[in-house]
Amino acid sequence: MLSSRTLNYGLSLLFPLILLGCGAQTEAPKEQSKSLHVDTLTISTSNLRLSNELPARISALKKAEVRPQVTGILQTRLFKEGDFVNTDEVLYQIDPTIYQATVNSAKAQLTKAFAAESTTQKSVNRYRELLKKKLASQELYDEAESAYLQAKAEVTIKKADLDYANIELSYTKIKAPISGIIGISLASEGSLLTVGQSSYLTTIIQSDHVYVDMQQSSLSLYKLKQAFSSQTNTQASIPVLLTLEDGTEYSEKGYLEFSEAQVNASTGSVTLRAIIPNPQQTLLPGMFVRATISAPEARDYIVLPQSTIIRSQSGEPYVFIVDEKNISEKVFLELGNEVGNGWIIEKGLKSGDKVITSNLNNIKNKQVVVIDSDIDVDQLSALNEKL
């Protein structure tokens, strides 16, 4: 029979062996935990025609503020607000009484000047004949000729006075300077209108075509110009499509007309202006729309879902890819345009790379991974369409 001392001694030798065995068993899962299970997306190119959507505002192609050019009482308004008016169509009539009287006076003064010219001309002719016969002195002839020249000049002055009076009389009929849609009348019959008044009577807007004003970053504008410079036809216009505030696509197509020559120092943006047809008067000045500028042609791009892209503390984008040995690798990216819920990758990835899409909070660089599932870009697109 074993003594208690012998039993205690045997247990003391066995206990470390048990602990050692347990330690060996716990180390095996530890080795396995180094491998992280992930899902991946195999990169391939997509053929896309890129577009850039910008907030835009409609402005009139031409806008005229109608003001009086003479002072007087407004007698009549001759148009209906909101109608289309043609160039030189009479819009208002100012009381012409005073200006007609000035015209009549100028005509009378011109008639008087013509009479004086005729009289002095006859006097010059008479003295010329007498001078030839030496029956009059040179002095008398010179005085007669001077009087004639003065009378002739007076005729020119009176003609100018009559022309000016007629011009002022014509200004009593306030006419449309351009063709277009006329706005609200801000003056009523009986109002006193004055030359140089600050307030206008009405406005006329030419809106069969309108301007679309957009703000674009200087860098994006440079990329846009680079894209179109590769075309064979360097004079080709850049198309612009509009989406209205309710999401409706506008049927007419416009073209980029102008880009500002300098960058706004506070915003870093450049103003772009397109011109677009407006036959149904759908687009009104001041309206906000979305303008889409499309690239000249479709090209192959690598597009990566935004959810797979990680940002460093400094904001640099990067992803983890899996190499041939199933080891993770941290790759920094250069992003291009945003396309749907993804980014175009300018630099950093190539077709065939496997980008890790799961366990992104736990993944580390140079870590062994186990790929549970792998899909390509086409399968991802099909899955998104089903969802």
From TrEMBL:
GO molecular function terms attached to this record: transmembrane transporter activity
Subcellular location: Cell inner membrane
Positions of the Multidrug resistance protein MdtA-like barrel-sandwich hybrid domain: 63-204
Leader sequence segment: none
UniProt membrane topology term: Lipid-anchor
A GO CC term assigned to this protein in UniProt: plasma membrane
Segments forming domain Multidrug resistance protein MdtA-like alpha-helical hairpin: 103-172
Main location: membrane
UniProt domain Multidrug resistance protein MdtA-like C-terminal permuted SH3: residue ranges: 302-361
InterPro entries for the chain: MdtA-like_b-barrel, MdtA-like_BSH, MdtA-like_C, MdtA-like_HH, RND_pump_MFP
GO BP annotations listed: response to antibiotic
Domain Multidrug resistance protein MdtA-like beta-barrel: 210-294
Family listed: Belongs to the membrane fusion protein (MFP) (TC 8.A.1) family.
Protein name: Acriflavin resistance protein A
